[in-house]
Amino acid sequence: MANDFEADIKAVSGIDAVPAILEVICRSTGMGFAAVARVTEDRWIACAVRDDIDFGLKPGGELKVETTICNEIRQSGQEVVIDHVAEDPLYCRHHTPAMYGFQSYISMPIFYPDGSFFGTLCSIDPKPARLNRPEIVQMFRLFADLIMFHLQAGEKIELTRENLQQERDMAARRERFVAMLSHDLRNPLAAISAGTEILKQETLSGRGASTLQLIQRSVRRMVTLVDDVLDVARVRLGAGVPLVRHDNLTQADLEQVIDELRSAWAGRTIKTDFAMTHAVPCDQSRLSQLFSNLVGNALAHGADDAPVHVEAGCRDGVFEFAVANRGKPIPADILETLFEPFSRHSDSLQHNGMGLGLYIASEVAQAHGGTLNVTSSEEETRFCFRMPLAQDDDNRDIVNEMQDGLKQ
To answer: What is the pLDDT of residues 90-114, one digit of tens each?
Structure first.
């Protein structure tokens, strides 16, 4: 059987309403056999069957198309209704009723929306039946239209599924390409960075020294961008943000992040309130990245004349880090997608970046089993990271001892 007929059988059998349609036909007409058939110029294939008279056909069964009245319906495009073959002037001597032994027959063509022919909805019985009535004929027409509606819907769903899979495959290939490209860019950047360190040892003119500083800043910026893109590619490919859980986060680590940002944002005020009662087991590098992204975001989008407030502490078995800034509130529609990759504030074009910082921060938070939330109003915009800690001091001591052992 050709693959297209197999697909037709699968499509019709996949319509939940078809068995009920065939049952209603048999009950309404008193006939014992009903089927949905795929009919072409050279094939008649049963796609769905209800057989209460042991006619012998099952889904996938085939009749010689030239022996069927459905073949004539395919050519004419008109339904055929026979109450009693023996008394019908057109079909009393027709070869098909004699061959298959039926006296009552009704068959309704099923058309695609473009007018092309699919097949028939048909029913037969060895006994006569009152079929040529408006309610019966109209019922068959409605059922034929309903079957085609479901077939079309199924085709659209399948096409959508195929297109979606193609898009997913294409996206995966793009992500792999980006990941490989980002990884390969690290080597030349590392070479440039090493070269600038060598040049720093040389005697340079004032112009040369300032140019060297500019190159170093650009390299650091490019390394950050490459790392961000590589992180996003890892997440999109299903690998997630890689963590190295053999370190502790301390207040000194937080202060170092703030000092680096103060240096980069000279003239801006960052106020801190740290209450780190003990070190926090985590991937220290990743959490520092998260904090840097959040504070950097606040500096980039907050009001220039207002300080950025940073709080951190361990309370009630939870480590919490919050960043707040004054400025324009983030619109509700942007809040909904703020942690998606390449999502940016409406005014973010004036700032460097690709809109990856908050997405990466969110992924780092999830990788640590924490949450990252944001609220924004006229008073302030606040990002808050919360991460559960060990349940008690004994457990925490055990974790710290294990981490110290790993360091050794």
So the answer is: 999 999 999 999 999 999 999 999 9
DSSP state of 331: P
Given a contact cutoff of 8 angstroms between Cβ atoms, the answer to whether 258 and 272 are in contact is: yes
AA letter at 203: T
DSSP 195-209: HHHHHHTS---HHHH
| Nearest-angstrom CA–CA distance, 63 and 33 | 15
Of 130, 112, 135, 140, which is closest to residue 34 (Cα–Cα)?
140
Distance of alpha carbon 321 from alpha carbon 310, whole angstroms: 7
Residue 175 in contact with residue 236, Cβ under 8 Å? Answer: yes
- DSSP labels, 280-326: EEE-HHHHHHHHHHHHHHHHHHS-TTSPEEEEEEEETTEEEEEEEE-
Give 205 or 186, the one with higher predicted confidence.
205
Measured CA to CA, the distance from residue 256 to residue 310 in angstroms comes to: 13
Return d(Cα 156, Cα 166) in angstroms, integer.
Answer: 15
pTM of the complete model beyond 0.85: no
